[in-house]
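Troubleshooting entry. The earlier prediction with iron/sulfur cluster gave an output that would not parse, so I re-checked the input for stray whitespace and re-submitted. Clean input:
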Amino acid sequence: MAATAPSLPNDILIHAPGVREAAYWHKEPGGKVVCDLCAQLCKINEGHVGVCGVRKVMGDKLYTLVYALPSAGHIDPIEKKPLYHFHPTTRVLSFGTIGCNMRCRHCQNFEISQARPDVTKVQGLPANYLQSVPPEDVVSLIERTGAQGIAWTYNEPTIWFETNVEGCRRAHEAGYYAVWVSNGFATEEPMREIAPYLDAINIDVKAFTDNFYRKVSNARLQPVLDCVELCLELGIHTELTYLIIPGENDEPQEIRNFCRWVAEVPGDLTATHFSRFHPDYKMMDKGETPAKTLEMAYAIAKEEGLKYVYNGNIDDPAREMTYCHHCGAVNMKRRWFDTTPLFKIRSVGDDGEKGAFCRECDKRLPIVLPKDAERRIRPSIGVIQSIYDACVPDHPLRK
Ligand code: SF4
């Protein structure tokens, strides 16, 4: 499936900012170019772009139109991705560009995900709000902003792979972490290429039926599930998000099927985030997800044996906390993106690796910490723990 884009002559466009030959494509015997970067596997005619709108065939070659061109950049708490079990309380430099390989009718970032490069301007790219940030600058930007890592987020990172594989590599090799927030639709080969430099990923499982993916997102479910498995096989810390949309993916049985799959495949220790929908883009006819639906999903997940379940985009402190999967003690208190770690930190290897241990039963928790966790993880755990013990001696959701 492909769409038409207005175009400058190729000989001008290929020299425009942001345009460079793409990775992961091949030419079919019949002459069409096939993009192999994501499971859409677009077959693209000369002068056309793929579903994502940012990869174009010119002169029998595939080009990215958004190399090093973010549309948005912010410093975010890592919890906002959401990643709750990875370097908690750290700040992450976050970039997104425009375009997306899915067409979700409810997209909450549709202004950028459904935007397309404006190649009609005389100067070619960038479109109005794209600015150049080459991957060579990523490390100095992280340093200057005081962040501890880089995130590729806001729109789908896969579709500007050429930029962020290089950005991830440079960040990772300089001792910072690199993460993706993704719809999990990338193909296997690029994920294998980026895996050595990609420390963590949050993958949206948007529903647990193929029908939803086809109808709402112009995509399919199975490649997403395959991508989750692959990320785990490749050793990437993986968390999952399921946005619950009233009347679309909120049937108890569908949520139960999702939770059973999480328990069986990624495993019961996988941090699983249920998120509240609010009306947006082409889905303005639905209301917000009722609090009761989120509570129901949380309860189902617990019944299916998931140990680390979180409800987000809603003020529900009890379902945002991290409870030890051995004894049930609260080990991270959370209010929106404000996290208070309560666990103990100890060395777990000769190379200085640090582990998180339950503040009560002293068993290891599935939380990835930086090597300098004592310094980076705020605040003073002993003080906070005693305050917390006094205020919340026994939480209602403690198992
Ligand atoms: S990244 Fe995906 S959507 Fe974009 S052109 Fe390639 S296959 Fe198509």
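This one parsed fine. Confidence is low (pLDDT under 50) at residues 1-6, 119-128, 379-396.
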